[in-house]
Every structure is written in structure tokens, then in C-alpha cells.
Amino acid sequence: MKTKFSRFTLPVVVACAMALVAATFTGCSLIKKFQAAKILIETKFEYKDLTFDNVDVYDDVMELVNNGMNGFLPNPKAVMLVKDLSQNIINKNLGNANFDVYINANNTGKDTLWINKLQIDIKFDTLVTVPLTLKDTIKLAPGDNDLHFNAAFPLDAKIFKFKEIQYYGIAGFIDVSLTEGGESVSQSVEIKRDVKPEDVEKLQNLVRDRLFDLLVNKWLGKLIN
Q1: What are the two backbone dihedrals, phi and then psi, of residue 34, each rounded to the nearest 5 degrees?
Q2: Are the C-beta atoms of residues 103 and 48 closer than 8 Å to each other?
Q3: Does the residue 190 lie in any domain?
Q4: Does a structural domain hold residue 4?
Q5: Domain residues for 125?
Q6: 214 with 64: CB under 8 angstroms?
Q7: Per the domain annotation, does 1 fall within a domain?
Q8: What's the number of domains the chain is made of?
């Protein structure tokens, strides 16, 4: 006995098969998403350290100072800038002081999480909030992971108030997946760390000394004489 299929039967069978495949893939995707979410929720983020890296002074500021002694008389704008700096006064943004920020992410699961997106800011007490830029790391392996960030603090009047900082606040979110480029899950990150007065004063002095090396020291003899 032969089974007869109508001309509508085959498309229906194909459609059902495709739906079954799609449902399977969707189910796998959801499982991976739930697994990633569970691991991410259990991942612990801890502040480790903040260190001074360097200063980036804007080109026009460097040009003003470097060329300010050319000619018969010094450039009055350069003279004023250098005099103000020597008294810890900054009247405009001169560039950025770059800091390295280190955070530990402890992945307590057995699977690696791939970082798809990371948007985190650091709040220097009430002075300023700047974004953190992640360096190198693209995944969180099981165990401890050292995350290295860069924070660019504006070189304006606030830099000489750095020693008044009492805490760093780190907050934002991270998107991860179980596979590279896979479907993401998101988790907020929030860390607050009190800092010692002597530590922030040391950082302020490092920034000030570097600024003086770049913009002030070679002028001192000229201005005093």
C-alpha cells in the first residue's frame, strides 16, 4: 500500500522541520544566555589599585611654552601660564593626567565569559567623573582576572584639589556571552573604595612634578633673572 502525499504535504513537513531546528537553536541560545547570566551574577569585582601613568599636555599649550622665550621679549601669555602654574593655579584645561586603574574580576564559574561591551566610569569623589577605558582584556577566564583600565583626569584647576579626594567610585555595566560574539547578558558593576590622604597627596605631587618638568622648570631661570 502506497502512502499518497498531497502537493501541500511536503512544504508543511519542511516548515515543521525548520521550526523544530529553530526551536532547538533558540533553546540552546537561551540556555547559554542563562548560563552566562548565572556566572556573571556570581562574578565578584574588586578594586585593586590606582597609579599615575603620565600627563598629556595639549599641543597648543606645549607650543606656547616652548616658543614663548623666542624673540626679544617673552610671550606674555606664556609668562602668565608659567607663573600661575608655579603657584598651583590653572585657569584652563591643559590636557589630561592619565591614571592606571586595576580591578580584579573573580569568575567563580567553570566557563569563560567573553566581554562584548564594557561601559564603566570612575568618580573621583565629588571632583570629576571620567570614563574608564579597558586595555587588552576581552574575556574573563575562570578564577581571578586582572582588568587594566585607563582614566584621563582633566588637567585643570581640579588637579590641585586631588589630595582632597576621600573615595573612588566605580560604576557602570558589563555585557558578556559564553561564546565570542554570542548573545549578551548585562550586569551592573559598582565599587566604592575609600582612599588614604597620603596616597592621593602623593598622586597629586606626581602630576604636579611632571607638569613642572614639562612647562615650568626650564623657565624659572629666565623669570627670576
Answers
A1: -65, -40
A2: yes
A3: yes
A4: no
A5: 9-224
A6: no
A7: no
A8: 1
Q: Which own/partner contact pairs does 67-70 have at CB distance under 8 Å and 24+ positions apart?
A: 68/219, 69/219, 69/222
Query: What's the rounded Cα separation, in Å, for the pair 201 and 166?
Result: 11
Judge whether 195 lies within some domain: yes
Residue by residue, pLDDT tens for the chain (225 residues) are 455 544 445 444 444 434 333 334 444 556 766 676 787 888 999 999 999 999 999 999 999 888 877 767 788 898 899 889 989 999 999 999 999 999 999 999 899 999 998 999 999 999 999 999 998 778 999 999 999 999 999 999 999 999 999 999 999 999 988 888 888 888 899 999 999 999 999 999 999 999 999 888 877 655 555
Q: Are 29 and 183 in contact (CB under 8 A)?
A: yes
Query: DSSP alpha helices (H): ranges in the chain?
Result: 9-42, 59-67, 76-86, 197-215, 217-224
Check residue 189 and report its DSSP letter: E
Cell of 67: 616658543
The grid coordinates of residue 188 equal: 551592573
In the numeric block, which cell numbers belong to residue 178?
Answer: 559564553
